[in-house]
Request: fold
Amino acid sequence: MVNLRTKPDRQPYTFPGFGSEKFPNLMLRGAGDLDNWRLAVYEQKHEGYQALKKALQMAPVEVTAEVKASGLRGRGGAGFLTGLKWSFMPKDTDEKKFTRYVVCNADEGEPGTFKDRAIMEYNPHQLIEGMIIAGWAMQCQKGFIYVRGEFKWMIDKLDAAIQEAREKGYLGKNILGSGFDFDLDTYRGAGAYVCGEESALLNSLEGRRGEPRSKPPFPAQVGAYGKPTTVNNVETLAAVPPILRMGAAEYSKIGSPNNTGTRIFGISGHVKRPGVYELPMGTTLDFIINEIAGGTLSGRPIKAIQPGGASCPFLTVKDLDCGMDFDQLKARGTMAGSGGVMVMDDSTDMVQVTLRLAKFYAHESCGQCTPCREGTNWMQLILERIVAGEGRMEDLDLLTGITPRIGLKTLCALGDAAAGPVESAVKVFRSEFEHYITHKRSLADGPALVSHFAKH
Amino acid sequence: MNHPLHHEHSDRPLAPGQRLPESARTALSDGAVAEILALADRYPDRLAATLPALYVAQREFGFSSLKAMKEVARVLQIPEAHVFGVATFYTMYLKRPVGKFHIQVCTNLSCSLRGAVKLLEQLCERVGVTPGGEPSADGMWSVEEVECLGSCGTAPCLQVNEDCYEELLTEADLDRILEACRQGDVKAWGEV
Reply:
């Protein structure tokens, strides 16, 4: 039996002016409405499968060129040009025919990130349409949607939506009379953050432990089941139908230089209106936090912000003028990451925040690379010692001595993700750490952020 | 590509010295075997069915016992060591029995900023168990502290068996969920 949710979640998906020319609604059409996922609604209200019909009239290379021209950059966090990534897939020659796969990364495990689920829950057909177009552009035979295991109900919904698309002839043999055969399947993960890394995801998809692979070979050469594969984030694939509908030239007018289009931001933490909001790339942090999310819940000043999920180095209130796109955030020493903005007001104890994040990475390290496996555990132990009131002043230098020994020294980015926030916390909030060590308690007056129960 | 080694079946423990709790059930039902074989056909190779097959076995056995893992290896004809490695890598394959209502509380940053630690403490006090510990004596409850469940905008959140409950800001919200469990309005662990 299909287990579909019967009550909508309580968070907002919209704000005044959303859907206007200034704030186009390309990916959250109908979000919040439980019936919106159905194929009939998508076709009738949201120009559903129009882009696919257009794409099938074009040559595959033209579709890739269109996506490249739109300037779309991967929304998973790396910000790599999607069209360029697609063009890395090998083409058939007279001597060699390839089996190719397109894989959708719907692992969404980054703490503070909850955007992909909004697409899958309310607009699964837009993702499916995007995957079929990607499949056509790269001439793939099959697509897989790898969804994190906790989202069981969402997988049921995706399966139901895929079945609807199959019955309507959008999937299967000879799609819409074009001669193109393509089908989709879902795959349920089982609770491992590292499987959001594309090569770990591919291992998991093959039924193995989710350990990242050594690159090269890159997935475009040897991907899922040993075949050429492209892995794209949910949001990236869902952006493809709007690009084809409106045309690359129109799409690239949205956003900031070199960072085209809209992006879905998930705002959480100490704000009045946490939720999922779609905004043009480059929108300032100040506008997102203070205008859209209504400022801090308590009205107290902001102390720290992680602009793109738990892996990002911290920003402070002086960075509110920063535009939220890949390049501007990088210039501030942090990352656009997954678009999950976590806001902390001045009651937050940054030492406990750092410990909570270090604990997460120590728990989620796959254990394959020594710097990450050992380093994340050491960081957790040192931070636990400080929080327990047994910290020593030299622990701070010890921490900043460990971080460069993890970052960029591992097969995947989990090591960098673990090192970045710790390094920046000790740098930016050093006085708080010193206070904690000297006085054996926090400078901040907020509630506990780490439970006293046994370690993971 | 399937595993290069031949599959072998023995009654030896897969990890010497490791004592996993034993399950009452010792074999998969015919229905579950058929379900797993259907999964093996769904993906490009048999090995790929390891993860979904482990879910099927976990549902039948109540948790992923050693016997459950061995059964998956037997049905899929893949090495037991591979299945053991996979089952112990992923946190959602539970290596110990859980209560009828297995409650997972996210305490990662977005949730803890909005009171998840307090929620976890209240929950443990209500049902009388510790996170990650044994289920309650009546077999009703078990609690686990987990990493991000992807409901940061509606934090704090918790998951009862396979259903997520969000925006649990008050104790009354928590009590309502526990009461729904007691009344049988929430599916029990393993119930489809």
Q: What stands out?
A: The mean pLDDT of chain A is 95. The longest strand of chain A covers residues 262-269.
